[in-house]
Structure formats: structure tokens, C-alpha cells
Amino acid sequence: MTIRELIHSSELLMDEKQKDSNVPKVLFYHVSNMEPHELYLKMDEEVDRDTLEIYNNYLDRYLKGEPVQYIKGKEYFFAYEFKVNEDVLIPRYETEELVENILYHVDDYFKDYKTVKLCDVGTGSGAIAITLALEEEKLDVYATDISEKALAVAKENAKDLNAHITFYQGDMLQPLIDHHLKFDFFVSNPPYIPVHQDIDPVVKNNEPHVALFGGEDGLYFYRKIFERVKEVLNDKAILAFEMGFDQKELMEEALDYYFKDSRYQFIKDINGKNRMLFIYYNIEHVHTDR
């Protein structure tokens, strides 16, 4: 069987099973270690037995509901390659927009700082913390996660990408409080899906629930952070969060309780949905929509 015949038959199978017909090529790129242009030139070559066996195994795993990213063991985020497995959430494009906005804020509000101390709470694969450390050299980055297995993945990614991050294992803010740390920039993408909300079975059945679900209304971890976060902030600081697109009203209630004297801003994503929250703690002259 040629590569062309194999991919064509796989694409027909994907259509029949109502699955993504792009997956066969993605998996074959990975198994054969070929770039798209290389594959195009070799389409009429025969598939060797070992490659076919691995490819069929991967395709079967995908058809049984495993995410392509876990099958490949990696995902790209901000053009960096991150290792991922079932112990960490798969990095999303929406979170790249959060990172972009954090970098803009570092430029706008901390341009006179030689060093900006930043923490990422609930780091998972380390995608946010590592990308920020690589993209902005003035950042001194710390990252926490309650999961030792997730931290093992994050540490491996930091090593592979040559990013200097200080990692702590522990529940939310606790390791930062225990080490008496103070930050200029606080970042978190906490679990924000309400526990009873229906979600894609591929996500629900594969990705770690501790990184997905945020209590009855999705804001459990935000309130937990808001309650004690001032203990780890410098006199002036910015807080940045990813959030559910439909949580603005609930979030405003929480902010008016915990941050009634601070300005805040909801930032829309590329689809025009409120997906990011920035809080300006003791910072004046803020341009916000509030």
C-alpha cells in the first residue's frame, strides 16, 4: 500500500465515523517524522511495515476517543513545542491570546522595571509560564501546581525549551505564601467549567478533571484566589486570568466583593467573547472598559 492509498482510505474512514478527516495526515507526519512538503513528494512510495503498524495503532486510539495531542505526546503553543500527556490540560489557542495580552501589559506598565516578578498558579504543562519566560527576558517566573505529575511535565518542558522557572508543588497560593513571595504580576488559568456543564466527551474522558471543573458555577478557584491573593502581591500589581466567555456577571459580583477598590478590565478574544480578566491592584491611569 502506498502512502497516498493509506491516507485516502483513512480519510474515508474518518468521514464514515464522523471524525476529523485531517487527522490521518497529522498522524502520518508524526509517525514518519516527515514535513508536509516531504510527504507530498513521497505519496506514491510504499509504507513500510513498522510505520504502518504504529500508524494503525495511533489511528485506532484516535477512533476510540483519545485526543491527537496525547497520541503524539506534544502540542504547539506560541510556536514552542510542549510535551503533553493525560496529566496535563492540552494548551489552547485561546490561552495564547492571554499570553499576548500579558506581554503587552508588561511593556505598558513595567517598562521602567529591570525585573518583573511573575507567578503562574495552576501551571499544568507550563505553557503559560515557560512562554512568558522565553518571550520576555525581564520576567522572573515562578509556577505552582497541586499535581506532582503535572509539575514533572512542566519541568521537563522548561528543561527542553531552556526556560528558567522556579516550580513549587502545592495547592493554589499556598506554596507562594509559605515562601513569603511577593509578585508584580499574578497569572492564572484556573479550572472554570461548571461541574454539571456538558462538555465534549473527548475532553471529559481524557483531560484531567482537576484542571477542568471549577465548582457549581465555575468560579470556585477564582474566589479561592481572590480571598488570599493580596498576601502575595507587591504594593502595585496586575492580575491576569482566563475565564469562561459567559461568566462576566458572576465575575463582576466576585470582583466587587474582593477588589472593590481596584479597577479591572474584561478583554475579548478574537471571536469577540469575554475570555480574559485583568485586575489593576493599586494602579492608577488604567484604560479599561469599566
From TrEMBL:
GO molecular function terms noted in the UniProt entry: peptide chain release factor N(5)-glutamine methyltransferase activity
InterPro entries the record matches: HemK-like (IPR004556), N5-glutamine_MTase (IPR050320), PrmC_N (IPR040758), RF_methyltr_PrmC (IPR019874), SAM-dependent_MTases_sf (IPR029063), Small_mtfrase_dom (IPR007848)
Domain Methyltransferase small: 114-194
UniProt keyword annotation of Methyltransferase present: yes
Sites where the protein binds substrate: 189-192
GO biological process per UniProt: methylation
Domain Release factor glutamine methyltransferase N-terminal: start-end pairs: 19-73
EC numbers: 2.1.1.297
Key word Ribonucleoprotein present: no
Entry keyword set: Methyltransferase, S-adenosyl-L-methionine, Transferase
Listed CDD domains: AdoMet_MTases (cd02440)
Positions annotated to bind S-adenosyl-L-methionine: 122-126, 145, 189
Gene3D superfamilies: DNA helicase RuvA subunit, C-terminal domain, Vaccinia Virus protein VP39
One Pfam family linked to the record: MTS
Catalytic activity: L-glutaminyl-[peptide chain release factor] + S-adenosyl-L-methionine = N(5)-methyl-L-glutaminyl-[peptide chain release factor] + S-adenosyl-L-homocysteine + H(+)
Function: Methylates the class 1 translation termination release factors RF1/PrfA and RF2/PrfB on the glutamine residue of the universally conserved GGQ motif.
Family under the similarity heading: Belongs to the protein N5-glutamine methyltransferase family. PrmC subfamily.
Name of the featured protein: Release factor glutamine methyltransferase
Organism: Eggerthia catenaformis OT 569 = DSM 20559
